[in-house]
């Protein structure tokens, strides 16, 4: 399929994410600079909250009384939420992420906003090396209960039928496939499919999760990162197309 104009008006995307990780982690001074830079986003992302990480330590051994549990919290960044609550920005000590929630618009809107916000973060932290970046799309699809799954999906868990030849009901399933990508140097792919709580009693709800990450050579250029994300988007599109039957794909147009 030609992807030059591939777009689904009813795309089943529940979250699209662009993430860029940096190293080493930012200092308190750098994080203060990041939070200061984030004020330029306040009109579009008026809500914010801190992100913390909890560390819990405890110990025990043969013949020993358990040591008292100790816990500590660490500030790892801040999350910013758009007025309509459909876009999320996370500025972390070790990177940045941008998420779009439903309704998904177009790749160009998503990419350009991520690039704009990354520019704010990057201007605040200076030339810190990029150590990893990626693209993730989480989809949710519904198929009628009692119908053969292969009428809708090409990626699914399959079990032998009942002795009478009828379909065996699968109450829950989880599939994970990890693979290197030939299309992207140092690219890595994780595909996950899992059953979700049904939206209606007559429907089976499934997630289709495509996660592409790249661990590039040291000090990749900005141009390389965004060009590679374009390639990752094309790979993701083809994976999605190939995971659905043509008839089911048409229902999202």
- Give the overall shape, derived from the CA principal axes: globular
Radius of gyration: 22 Å
Count of extended strands: 9
SS-based structural class? alpha+beta
Span between termini? 14 Å
* Proportion in helices: 10-25%
Question: What's the story with the biggest beta sheet?
Answer: 9 strands, antiparallel
Q: How many domains make up the 3D coordinates?
A: 2
- Which regions are unreliable across 5 or more consecutive residues at pLDDT < 50? none
Q: What percentage of amino acids are in beta strands? A: 35-45%
The pLDDT mean sits at: 90
Q: State the order of secondary-structure elements, H for helix, E for strand.
A: EHEEEEHEEEEHH
Please report the number of helical segments.
4
Order of strands across the main sheet: 2-3-4-5-1-6-9-8-7
In short:
With 253 residues, the chain is α+β, with helices and mostly antiparallel strands.
């Amino acid at each position: 399929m030609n992807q030059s104009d591939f777009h689904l008006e009813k795309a089943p995307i529940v979250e699209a994410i662009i993430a860029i990780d940096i190293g080493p982690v930012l200092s308190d001074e750098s994080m203060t600079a990041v939070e200061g830079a984030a004020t330029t986003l306040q009109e579009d992302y008026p809500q914010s909250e801190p992100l913390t990480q909890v560390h819990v330590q405890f110990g025990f051994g043969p013949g020993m009384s358990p040591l008292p549990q100790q816990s500590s919290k660490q500030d790892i960044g801040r999350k910013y939420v758009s007025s309509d609550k459909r876009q999320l920005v996370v500025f972390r000590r070790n990177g940045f992420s941008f998420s779009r929630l439903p309704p998904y618009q177009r790749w160009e809107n998503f990419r350009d906003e991520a690039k704009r916000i990354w520019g704010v973060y990057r201007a605040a932290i200076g030339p810190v090396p990029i150590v990893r970046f990626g693209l993730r799309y989480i989809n949710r699809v519904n198929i009628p209960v009692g119908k053969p799954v292969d009428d809708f999906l090409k990626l699914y868990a399959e079990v032998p039928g009942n002795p009478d030849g009828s379909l065996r009901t699968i109450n829950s399933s989880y599939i994970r496939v990890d693979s290197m990508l030939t299309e992207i140097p140092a690219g890595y792919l994780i595909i996950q499919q899992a059953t979700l709580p049904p939206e209606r009693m007559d429907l089976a709800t499934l997630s289709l999760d495509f996660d592409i990450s790249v661990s590039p050579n040291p000090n990749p250029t900005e141009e390389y990162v965004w060009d590679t994300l374009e390639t990752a988007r094309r790979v993701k599109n083809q994976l999605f197309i190939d995971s659905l039957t043509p008839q089911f794909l048409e229902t999202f147009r």
